[in-house]
Amino acid sequence: MSQITIVGDGQMGLVLAMLLAEKGTAVRITGPFPDQVATLAKSRVSQRLPGLTLPARVEVVAEAKDAVDGADLLVNAIPTQFIRRVWEPLAAATSSAAIRASVAKGIEVSTLERPSEILAEFAPDAPLVVLSGPTIAAELARRLPATMVAASDNEDAARVVQELFGTSWMRIYTNTDPLGVELAGAAKNVIAIAAGIIDGLAAGYNAKSALLARGLSEIVRLGTAMGANVETFFGIAGVGDLATTCFSPEGRNRTCGERLGVGQTLKEVLDGMGSVVEGVETARGMLELARRHDIELPIMEAVHAILHEGLDPRDAITGLMGREQKPERIG
Amino acid sequence: MSQITIVGDGQMGLVLAMLLAEKGTAVRITGPFPDQVATLAKSRVSQRLPGLTLPARVEVVAEAKDAVDGADLLVNAIPTQFIRRVWEPLAAATSSAAIRASVAKGIEVSTLERPSEILAEFAPDAPLVVLSGPTIAAELARRLPATMVAASDNEDAARVVQELFGTSWMRIYTNTDPLGVELAGAAKNVIAIAAGIIDGLAAGYNAKSALLARGLSEIVRLGTAMGANVETFFGIAGVGDLATTCFSPEGRNRTCGERLGVGQTLKEVLDGMGSVVEGVETARGMLELARRHDIELPIMEAVHAILHEGLDPRDAITGLMGREQKPERIG
């Protein structure tokens, strides 16, 4: 790769720029707001991820069109609901052959498309790779050990991304199921809101672990109905990412849920967070996908009802625990 | 059920006695050491589980033979490596038709038998039920919400146990794969030691979640080779129990690993813990099972080497992270 450009100056964009620069790879980073990027270019630090200083080798480019020009690998680090409006105007400036790698985790509510599907609309012939896993950014900024999968229908492209992002502290596995990886990444943010609610209610690790298992089973049920590979949900980007998102105190979706659990309204929570909480909108997308595929998702339905229909979190837990006792059913 | 007897006055035995008594069920508890049980009979509290006081309705019986007499449901809450020596002398005193329900999580190293297999030796015709799930006892003592599976080849017996132990705060699912449930319960204690080591090394949530996913994949690989149902490992007693054991600060196996991670020797750790750490011996059993079924278990092998062969935990992590990057493989 002669030139890599990361579009998105949030946590994952910053971390991946640092990682590539430290490997000696030529990397540019840009973002949707030229003013913010210009500030980053000077300061080399961002309040989005205190503790990370961008290495001098990272080229910070305020105008996204300039940044993507000539890149042979493009990384999407824009949150799901904003991908379309950021990438559409860039289409003419990007090489149609450049690999697109996406780290976004969500479902576009207006279309029910996954991040890589949105990117494909603006580059139908480009190889697409989904890069996902348990990656709390503050830990990556400290080079703590982590893993991701590089998932693609195009195995060569997946191996390119594996090679490019693998380091002594970041182990990358290739995977051939981008659909499953993206669904798992989207759904886990919804389950993590439920995990946070359990924390807010101080209901304990047993309850949260049961939620993780039953939530995973909802992901499996929807994912396999949509054609994903069940093994993906057992993997790094499935249960691995779900676990870190449910248990790390730093995750935004879990934190959002915790604040709902102690009684804040959604508006109060979001006003106080200052960054996108992917699960809030993605809950709508997951329920619509479930409806289309005729799948029941009791936990995600409860999260949706808490977020968007005013259900009291306490009543939601009581409702989930109080259902008739049944045989365990996974798929 | 007219009479239920719990054999084992450790954490799970105490909690289950409390749960049954609060439901109005006639329940006895006993243990392997009559002196200790006699003390419990008077004090109604145990240093094994501070915070729990046995309800007056629980009958505490010092002599195990007296306690099991006439019981039509027997609960095994004795740690795996001690089941044989506790139950063998009781065989003549127990009804051969009484359901045996076991909550032990391990593999008997000398025979590679699962807890329910050991119990079956002394009651070949009794219905056997495995009761397992994410159940940190200190949370159960506070009646925080939790789930378990009641797994048996005998579906009627599983439903009896489901009915008996289900409460407003304990939701029980039936399951038809006792082999998978017991293997998952044994293996998770070994993986939890690795999770604790990660905590001791302060390697973070990303690393621990990757470990959880890769550890689960080892459990799946061994379990399916032995004939278990893959879905069990996605369930409450699979990934659910694995998650709570890896993340709850209260788990003994995780705590053991954490102390190894900060540099204590195994002897120092075990001397300081005062209760059985199931994963330490079970690691031997898991490796022997893997050898017999020709399965590679890199994480469990590393834990075994740290526990029993003096491998430095830091070198183990470096070894696991430094292997050649590969495609993700689950089963």
Task: Give structural notes.
- 2 copies of one chain form a homodimer.
- With 331 residues, chain A is an alpha/beta fold.
- The first copy, chain A, has helices spanning 11-22, 34-43, 64-68, 83-87, 115-121, 137-141, 155-165, 178-200, 205-225, 230-234, 236-247, 252-261, 266-273, 278-293, 298-308, 313-321, and strands at 4-7, 27-30, 59-60, 73-76, 99-102, 128-132, 146-151, 170-175.
- Chain A is built from 16 helices and 8 strands.
- Chain A has an 8-stranded mixed β-sheet with strand order 3-2-1-4-5-6-7-8, with helices on both faces.
- In chain A, helix 4 (83-87) links the parallel strand 4 and strand 5 (99-102).
- In chain A, helix 8 (178-200) packs antiparallel against helix 9 and helix 12 (252-261) packs antiparallel against helix 13.
- Chain A is globular and about 60 Å long.
- At the A-B interface, strand 7, strand 8, helix 9, helix 10 and helix 11 of A face strand 7, strand 8, helix 9 and helix 11 of B.
